[in-house]
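Input (structure):
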């Protein structure tokens, strides 16, 4: 189970290390995941677990090929997320959002 915590949409820059790769539209969603457990009185409890990020890179210019290179998206608010390009518009985040 998970709840959507944040949805970030905008235009950002994609870097490979310090090298500029592309400008792209993005959509990043951050979810709070939960673990369900049984309580001592046989009830159920939902305990917050790790956050999970999903990322889409839309219409990069120039196009970004699928690769094993770790890339960084710098969002329009300055925050960053690292990812691998896994397919057309599909980015696989390597972790969460950071400054």
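Output (sequence):
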């Amino acid at each position: 189970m998970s709840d959507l915590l944040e949805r970030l949409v905008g235009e950002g820059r994609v870097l490979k290390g310090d090298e500029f790769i592309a400008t792209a539209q993005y959509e990043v969603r951050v979810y709070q995941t939960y673990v369900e457990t049984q309580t001592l009185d046989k009830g159920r409890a939902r305990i917050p677990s790790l956050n999970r990020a999903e990322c889409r890179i839309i219409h990069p210019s120039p196009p970004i090929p699928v690769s094993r290179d770790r890339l960084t998206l710098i969002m329009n608010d300055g925050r960053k997320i690292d990812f691998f390009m896994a397919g057309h518009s599909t980015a696989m985040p390597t972790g969460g959002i950071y400054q």
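Notes: The chain has one domain: 2-93. Strands lie at 2-16, 19-38, 44-61, 71-74, 80-87, 90-93.
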